[in-house]
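Appendix B, example 12.
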Amino acid sequence: MRDVNKRWFETIVRYDKTMEDGEVKKVNEVYVVDAITFGEAEESITKELDSYMAGDFDIKNINPAPYSEIFFSDKDTDDKYYRVKLAFITIDEKTQEEKKSKVTYLVQAGSLEQARKNTEEVMNGTMTDYEFVSVTETKILDVFEKETK
């Protein structure tokens, strides 16, 4: 697993897609890009998809992602993305009460169960107590990182 902490944007792109039966249909697809600003996110998704799409496409929406960390898998079978929400458990030193802080991650995996396992693989390297709040499959098709020089 590769853990990447950056600023991410979720983009929704609408374009004409040729279906398996040959019919052309307008579709909306979700992609994630590594960017600092909305403008950079728009530029990045346009650059990434320009060579894959014949004809015009429209960027319908760009939103800051509700996560800053993505856990990438190196397995070919891990071809989906899941939102994993964890609650980190700490004890308030004054009141001795348990406190939970929720954090969301994007995890690449092939199934819900694999998303849990991939998350545990990354989190087991930490000393923090946590519990799973939710694991949900997303409609994200791909994640595009900036090339590092």
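The two ends are 22 Å apart (CA to CA). The beta strands are 2-5, 8-18, 24-34, 57-64, 69-72, 80-91, 98-109, 129-137, 140-144.
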